[in-house]
Design brief:
It is a single chain. The protein has 15 helices and 13 strands. By secondary structure, it is α/β, with parallel strands linked by helices. The strands form three sheets. Strands 1-5-2-3-4-6 form a six-stranded antiparallel sheet. Strands 10-9-11-12-13 form a five-stranded parallel sheet, sandwiched between helices. Helix 11 links the parallel strand 9 (284-288) and strand 10. The longest helix is centred in the first third of the chain and has 20 residues, at 110-129.
């Protein structure tokens, strides 16, 4: 563990395990096993960024970033607890005991401290869940002290999933809030023009042109998203959503900072052998649904969980595509044009090449007769819309493990 991690006690004889996998899978495994320790997750797009998730008996006790603590905490603390805006943080010191000491010294309610720790942890967890397959290190027995909160992670809340899915899309241009943004001199005219069509999302008493000029000067400083958010006094998500057209047009440029000089105390940790990255094998899941919205939602959820998705919007062409691709499981709607889900399911069960593939009905129909009919046709799992992302992933996991039918 680095000097940047939260305080730990009882670390003698820690067992450290390294692997390459999806963070969500790693967290789910640890939660199911109800183990205690610290999960350190690296960002494959930016070697300077990594996150830590602390667990006790499978429950979340704290989550934070390993690097860039100052900019992240100054940004988040200001929005969560404005009275802490002037509290100074350091990248070389642990923020967990500092927050605890400050709260104790101010004599404020413990519930407020727990609320702050929870919000900080969930923000970090969103970025962990948004990561693709990457290097992960688990230190069994490592912990925060004192433990002031325990949050169950057996089922990740839907809002957290949605935020993680959004960041997964944003990562195509912005790996993390630690990425630095820069406005080149030759793009300033275009920046001002774009601001007139896409106004700066800031409440201000200044004239629009003055606000645009002030915002442009911030982007010329090559600051991180956290730092820009702090100066504009809006959330990171607001900034990222606003700058999308600027990035698409090449007006703003993203930059990943160079690796800082390594501390001698970190040399031994850095020289330890890293997990060897093996070729990724991603099970293929077919989604047969004429709704592009459902297709996009399913692809985002399953891609985040380590699956490839074969989207089929025309059920009449499904058999040909399925025989060619041979997916590990099939998601299927009931109400579709030309061929409904029940008819298609019957055809699949009569196909010598496809009859053994598990089928999950993903439909808005929730009647008992629909469930009975689906079971009669050989459906392995029945999910009703709207569905929780975690339930979708769990249903696929069950049918792939040949679990009993649950219709």
């Amino acid at each position: 563990m680095t000097g940047n991690s939260p305080p730990q006690t009882g670390n003698t004889g820690l067992r450290v395990t390294r692997t390459v996998t999806h963070p969500r899978k790693a967290i789910k495994h640890l939660v199911n096993k109800q183990v205690s320790g610290c999960l350190t997750v690296g960002d494959p797009q930016d070697p300077q960024v990594s996150w830590q998730v602390f667990l006790r008996a499978g429950k979340l006790t704290y989550a934070t970033s390993v690097n860039g603590k100052t900019q992240r905490l100054q940004c988040l603390v200001r929005t969560i607890q404005p009275n802490l805006a002037k509290l100074e943080f350091s990248d070389s010191e642990n923020e967990y005991p500092q927050l605890c000491r400050w709260w104790h010294g101010q004599g404020l309610a413990m519930s407020k401290l727990r609320q702050l720790l929870m919000r900080l942890s969930l923000e970090a967890l969103v970025h962990v869940l948004a990561l693709p397959e990457t290097e992960i290190e688990f230190s069994k027995g490592s912990k925060v002290d004192p433990v002031l909160m325990e949050t169950p992670l057996a089922e990740i809340p839907a809002p957290l999933w949605q935020m993680a899915l959004q960041w997964q899309q944003w990562r195509k241009q912005i790996p993390s809030p630690f990425v630095h943004l820069y406005l080149p001199d030759q793009q300033q005219v275009r920046f001002r023009a774009c601001c007139h069509h896409n106004p700066v999302p800031v409440r201000s008493s200044h004239e629009p042109d003055q606000l645009i000029q002030a915002t442009a000067s911030i982007f010329r400083k090559q600051l991180s998203l956290y730092e820009i958010s702090t100066l504009l006094k809006v959330s990171v998500q607001t900034v990222v959503a606003w700058i999308q057209p600027f990035l698409n047009e090449g007006i703003l440029v993203t930059q990943i900072q160079d690796k800082p000089t390594q501390n001698p105390s970190e040399t031994s940790s850095a020289t330890q052998p890293k997990a060897e990255k093996k070729p990724e094998v991603r099970p293929l899941i077919a989604c047969i649904d004429d709704s592009k919205t459902i297709q996009k939602q399913v692809k985002g959820i399953l891609s985040l969980s380590g699956y490839e998705v074969l989207g089929i919007t025309e059920p009449a062409q499904a058999l040909t595509a399925l025989v060619r691709q041979k997916p590990a499981a099939i998601l299927m709607d009931v109400n579709m044009p030309d061929i409904d889900g029940y008819e298609l399911c019957s055809m699949l069960r009569q196909s010598r090449q496809l009859r053994e593939i598990p089928i999950i009905m993903l439909t808005g129909r929730d009647g008992i007769l629909d469930r009975i009919r689906a079971k009669t046709l050989g459906v392995n799992f029945y999910l009703t819309k709207p569905f929780h992302p975690e339930h979708l992933v769990e249903s696929i996991g069950k049918v792939l493990q040949n679990n009993p039918v649950d219709v």
